[in-house]
UniProtKB/TrEMBL annotation:
Protein name: Dabb family protein
Pfam family, one: Dabb
Domain Stress-response A/B barrel: 2-91
Amino acid sequence: MIRHVVIFKTKEDAPLLEFKKRIENLKNFIPEIKHIEVGVDIRYDKNPSDFCVITEVENIKDLDIYAKHPKHLEVIEFIKPYVIERRVVDYNV
């Protein structure tokens, strides 16, 4: 199992709850997704990121399918204008 974690810092006007809804809805279109969740920051830390996406897939092949899936790319295009910074970690679970 591979866990794909992406952390975003966004512009102030970013519609974070809409991001959450659209990203979590990807599980209805991409069968390779075993688990997906979006966490919106609660502003506890002094230097927070704004939200993170945690996705689990079975293997690298499935991660590649997820990454290139048209529905995933559609969500990326919606989010992209708001993104200031993006960080990724992929690891075996």
